[in-house]
Amino acid sequence: MLVWFVATSVVLVAIVFRSPAIDYRTVVLGALLPLVEAALGGPRLLHSVVGAVGILGVVMLATRNRRLVRRRALGVPIGLMCHLVLDGSFTRVDSFWWPVSGLSFAPGQIPEISHLGVSLFLELVGVGVAIWAYRLFDLRDPAKRQRLLQDGRLDLPTWRELGPAQGPDPGSADGLARRRFEAPDLAVGR
Fold first, then answer.
1. Burial, 35: exposed, middle or buried (Cβ in 10 Å; 0-12, 13-18, 19+)?
2. Beta carbons of 32 and 5 less than 8 angstroms apart
3. Quick one: which of 48, 58, 96, 189 is 20 to 30 A from 181 by CA?
4. Is the dihedral of CA 57, 58, 62, 67 positive or negative?
5. What is the pTM of this model?
6. All residues at 6 or more sequence positions from 83 whose CB lies less than 8 Å from its CB, including other chains
7. CA distance 102 to 114
């Protein structure tokens, strides 16, 4: 139940935000944090949208006027929100909408344990995602691996590096919009 959350959260955040400034170590921390609730006997604050938004609010308030610290700390609530999507917490109204759905915590174990067969399958899918991400972010390069481990940074591939099979079709609306916003080549004599 670890690889699915780690690999998929990192890939989702990298693809959606496309920001080289995100500290992916904190995204991983946020994605794994709700698993602590297994020791508490069931879903609590970290499996609710109110908990995720509350942690986001705390991060925003605690890091006012400290952009670098904020940029790093924002990975925790982002990873936490990824976890809520990836484990299907949103399908359990009593835990996802706590305390709006009622003040008592949801009965039963956390979703990762309550649907263990599905979780084991997703763990295998996570291994596949991790292998793909290893290649996508070129983590074979020791310098890039070291940068990820020390600074939490990934070198994100461009659409051109992804190739036509994975990037937008240049003739599609998405491809045209991307070309419109790319800086033109102003080199003289080309």
1. middle
2. yes
3. 189
4. negative
5. 0.76
6. 5, 9, 30, 31, 32, 33, 34, 46, 89
7. 21
Q: Which amino acid is at 102?
A: G
In order along its 190 residues, the chain shows pLDDT tens digits of 789 889 999 999 998 888 878 899 999 999 999 888 777 777 777 788 888 999 999 999 999 999 888 888 999 999 999 989 998 777 776 777 777 766 766 667 766 776 778 888 989 999 999 999 999 999 999 999 999 999 999 988 776 655 555 555 555 555 544 544 454 444 544 4
Do the beta carbons of residue 91 and residue 39 sit within 8 Å? no
User: b/e map of 82-108 (b: 16 or more CB within 10 Å)?
Assistant: bbbebbbbeebeebbebeeeeeebbee
CA dist 20 and 27 (Å) reads: 13
Q: Which two tokens stand for residue 12?
A: 């989702």
What are 14's two structure tokens? 């990298």
Look up residue 134 and give its amino acid: Y
CA atoms of 101 and 93, how far apart (whole Å): 7
Nearest CA to 23 out of 79, 87, 66 is that of: 79
